[in-house]
Model the fold of this input.
Amino acid sequence: MIGQLLPILTYGSELHGNPSEEASRTARRFARWVAMGYQGSNENKIEDITGIGKLETLTHRKRIRWAASVYARNELELRPRAERILREELGEEEDVILRWMEGTEGNPREEGEVIQTEERVGYTDGSRMEGVAAAATAEKAIFLGTLATVMDAEVLGIAGAWEEGYTVVKSDSQAAIKRCQNLISAIQEPRSWIDERVMRAAGRRGGVLRLEWVKGHSGVEGNEKADKRAREGVARGVWESDPSLATPAGIRQAYQLFEKKKHMKWDRDELRGLTYLHTDKGPMRHWLFKIGKAEDPKCRCGAIQNAAHLMMSGCVGGKRRQWEQIWDDREFCGEVTRFLRNQGEMEELNGGGG
Ligand SMILES: [Zn+2]
Done:
């Protein structure tokens, strides 16, 4: 349910330019309404439980992703706007953007035919460790950094090998080989400066190039070397604080629009039960008594009716639960809400707990 409503909320705030105070308040009210957080419940906790993040963050990500897609689709007329958005949203990472734009405009390379007659076999590999990527041939590495995917690295490795004059290039990534073949035969359009580099490198060789797959981590010497070189490239770039070379796919990966939270799939009763149990604030008698809305803090069984009681006593569904289970126990959380509703003391509060 939230998964469906959230895009509408972010879209609404997008229409008004930057997310306004009002839109953020609406999102928070919405989160409260969904989870029916009671008086005194922690706002961040409710956002966490419902999966509704800060609207500012979502809009920020959405703008960055939109700008990245403009570059990926090569929409020239939208570029100035995309460029402005990137400067606004990624302000302090200006270096990254400048380099990205340089890359997108195409790395200028010296013109001139390279005539190659003998066959030279080279190996390539791409690596991504702890979110940092690098591409490599057996001889050298190119640092990509945090805004590129492992696929970008694999493909750049192939382009690099061709640029170095290899005619037979061996990669352990079938996906990257396929991608390069599709680019060369114009089945797919270039989507980044890396793709353009592949096409340029291949175009200069005119059909003498061959791509071959080699099984990774199987002791093939050239492949092992390229793999080692790529991993060294990651470590060296991090050590020397080299700036990242961004790609649209890398940006999409780094700025995911919606984190896939499993709770976004839960229904309202389930989310409410989870909120009550987690915050220990809700229509259980202990809390209602505390805020002056019930005469008695006790359950029908005679014990104090708080979150712990609901979980441990077996009053709900006759089964005891562990605290660490409640995040996953969708069914039980729904049961808690229904149990409390059946007590007749749960009011449907308008706009969340009062
Ligand atoms: Zn009880």
Summary: The first strand starts at residue 121 and ends at 129. The chain has a mean pLDDT of 80. Strands lie at 121-129, 132-137, 141-145, 168-171, 210-213.
